Amino acid sequence: MDRKKHACLIYEFLSEQGGLEREIITHANFLKESGYEVTILTCYLDKNILKLLPFDNLKIETLGKFNTGIESLDMALCFLGLNNIKKYNPDFFLSYSYPSNFLIRNKKTKKVNYINHFPHFLYEENKTEWASSTQGVKRKISLVFNLFLGNFLKKLDRKLVHKNDLNFTNSEFTKKRMDSLYKINSIVSYPPLDKAFKPSKNNIKERFIFSSSRIIPDKKYELLIDSMKYMKNKLPLYLAGTVNENYKEKLIALANKNKVDIKFLGRLNTQEIIDYYTAAEVFAFPTPGEDFGLVPAESMACGTPCVVWGDGAGPTEQVVDKVTGYHADPYKIEDFASKLDLVIDGKMKHKNKNKILKQANKFFYGEIKKDFLKELKSNKIIS
What we know:
Rossmann fold; 2 domains; 16 helices; 41% helix
């Protein structure tokens, strides 16, 4: 009997509810449906995330020889060599970060890298803000390494990227930047939408503006709240996602100052977030220069138009200006406000419903899967 082929997907921590985690899930399902045994490897697993994201029927294993339950410590022990990576010999690895590339650096099997962005702790301009923009201290610890070993780590990063047999990037915007930084020719594979994203039949009888992501400083939600003071449609703002508590207090104070009614929904499961996407008047995505940002596509898949910055970043590859939403002049908050009003006053959600859903289809599971597997085959990663 032929041995079942095996793929290992690796990311150093699974503790946050973001687009990257959804990418891992859908890529795992792509491969399972193609006949592969799939194992997701991580140094730290927060089991609460399994209740919020559809990791159903996916095999997840922690790499650490010692699982302390402390995220930063478990990750540090993994990187210091106290891990079980030696026991894994799949047909190929699919990694999602610089630290993941580091963990598999000595493996002789084929390696595929899915690049969402450059390693922020090495290349981010505002490293201090970035380090404060997530739960735990892992980003702050990485800055200490950069302080003392930055040049060495940059060289190692480039070396590890070049050791990969195939490098994917998540958008044309990211490809341009990564190809320039690493001197590679990456392949664009958009993050795929989960099959579950479609207009909900559940009815939320409220009118509101919606946004969803990790609610952290580098997502720049203050730009959205500042813009809303210029809107003539005084709707409340609902925010869903993991929230940085200090940042939350700052946003509440800013909302009070601007007389914006704000509501934090917390971390929602997949069905709950679909309900809010569907019910919203408009989806607002205020993050500048986002590499891709899957949430606009998720919103459109639920029939709701989006307003994003027209800065040429990933969201502009999703939202068709004046058709499925608007591109606001970067980074003019008055124009962002006027675009939100245009969506609402022009009843774009109802008038352009079919066009909005059709645009979202470009990012749906089946289409992305077909192209993703095609590239793996053409690069002789799978047969």
